Amino acid sequence: MQVALVMGSISDWPSVKQTADLLEQLHVSFDKHVISAHRMPQELQAFGQSAKAEQYSVIIAAAGGAAHLPGMLAANTTLPVIGVPIQTKALNGVDSLLSIVQMPTGIPVATVAIGNAGAKNAALLAAEIIALTDEDVNTQLVAYRDKQTKEAIASNAQLQ
What we know:
The structure is a single chain. By secondary structure, the protein is α/β, with parallel strands linked by helices. The chain has a single domain (3-158), classed as Rossmann fold (3-Layer(aba) Sandwich), CATH 3.40.50. The protein contains 6 helices and 5 strands, in the order βαβαβαβαβαα. The chain has helices at residues 13-25, 41-50, 69-75, 94-101, 116-131, 135-154, and strands spanning 3-7, 30-34, 58-63, 81-85, 110-111. The protein has a 5-stranded parallel beta sheet with strand order 2-1-3-4-5, with helices on both faces. Helix 3 (69-75) links the parallel strand 3 and strand 4. The longest helix has 20 residues, at 135-154. The mean pLDDT is 96.
């Protein structure tokens, strides 16, 4: 597997499914896990410490609320970690964003937008990292971008 797709709770799956769907479209292999930073701290530490040996290239970690999952995974591995702030009811995901983006020096977490846009951008960012050494994924990324451009150009017709 190229990507470990980790969420703090099964309730995060509707957003994370968008990440998974886009990874599939880009030919990026992944597996998925629920690992709660607060309810499963030993499992989280073990997963982070073994991720490189398990041959992952990137970890995408999605969490809401206190959102310690991405940072704690990053603290236990040298693999790139991409944090996806899940949109919450209490503070609309701002709590998640701040928990993920405010990492101390030495433990970076690449942080994407709150919610669905972030879920998709996490897949794209992971694919860009993997495309550095995987020509098939690079080809899929180029095709994805070309399609976006063509759709944007075609949208001009809607102005008529």
